[in-house]
Automatic annotation (TrEMBL):
Organism: Bradyrhizobium ivorense
Domain Transcription regulator AsnC/Lrp ligand binding: 126-170
Enzyme class: transferase
Keyword annotations of the record: Nucleotidyltransferase, Transferase
Pfam families assigned: AsnC_trans_reg, MPTase-PolyVal
Domain Polyvalent protein metallopeptidase: 2-114
GO molecular function, one term: nucleotidyltransferase activity
SUPFAM superfamilies xrefs: Dimeric alpha+beta barrel (SSF54909)
InterPro entries cross-referenced by the UniProt entry: Dimeric_a/b-barrel (IPR011008), MPTase-PolyVal (IPR041459), Tscrpt_reg_AsnC/Lrp_C (IPR019887)
Name of the featured protein: DNA primase TraC
Length: 174
């Protein structure tokens, strides 16, 4: 993880009691690892804040002007949390359910804003890995996924991941 942080070239500071990214000064700060109940929570938080920093004008140049409560804020939170989830998966850090819960909470905010009226289509691809490969489990999982109105496509795949689903936020064309 330290190698990844250094490779980003982002000013990464450890200290304080909360995590944040300061766009104007282009630095990330997170509490020390021992402030977290589990190491994964520090990793997930660090990757989330680094993802925010990826939007700096010298990098991907995303519009980071939307503060909490604005219509832009949920989009940036989705970018950061999805990036964190993929980063954890790529590094072999087994993510907890927080990624899915947090992403879902921001999708709910976007649903309330009626994305179609804003002219925005939001499609998310979700990869799932499981240790359960019995036919019974797969059937239960498939039935659950099929009941989710946001899921517009779902496949069993091979390789490092077991399933892939295409999800559209309600109110979008998908």
């Amino acid at each position: 993880m330290n190698t990844l942080i250094k490779a980003t070239g982002i000013d990464f500071r450890i200290g304080g009691n909360r995590a944040f990214y300061v766009p104007a000064e282009d630095y990330v700060q997170v509490p020390p690892p021992q402030a977290y109940f589990e190491p994964i929570n520090w990793h997930r938080t660090a990757l989330h804040e680094l993802a925010h920093a990826s939007g700096h004008p010298s990098r991907l140049n995303r519009d980071l002007s939307g503060g909490y409560g604005t219509k832009k804020y949920p989009f940036e939170e989705l970018i950061a949390e999805i990036s964190s989830a993929f980063g954890c998966a790529s590094l072999g850090i087994v993510p907890t359910v927080r990624h899915a819960d947090y992403i879902g909470s921001w999708l709910e905010v976007l649903r309330e804003d009626n994305l179609s009226a804003l002219g925005i289509d939001l499609t998310i691809f979700v990869m799932v890995r499981t240790r359960h490969h019995t036919r019974e489990w797969a059937d239960r999982f498939r039935k659950y996924v099929e009941r989710q109105p946001e899921v517009i496509d779902f496949h069993r795949i091979g390789g490092d991941w077991d399933y892939m689903s295409k999800i559209a936020a309600k109110g979008t064309s998908g």
